[in-house]
Amino acid sequence: MTTPVPETKIIDKKKFACDGGGPADGHPRVWLTIPDDQGWVECPYCDTKYVYGEEIREAG
């Protein structure tokens, strides 16, 4: 059995909420903020990576 790779989403807001996709397969709603110096944040529940802007920047 393999574990699916977490999703990466490019968004245009730095403060947002993640609920994992809904009631059937989701998780409690958590509010996240993308740090200016990093440009991305991962949800602590579903590991979805949220990237601010139009390009995916590598962690570095």
UniProtKB/TrEMBL annotation:
The keyword Zinc applies. InterPro entries: Znf_CHCC. GO terms for molecular function: zinc ion binding. This is Zinc-finger domain-containing protein. Keywords: Metal-binding, Zinc, Zinc-finger. Pfam families: zf-CHCC. Residues 14-50 form the Zinc finger CHCC-type domain.
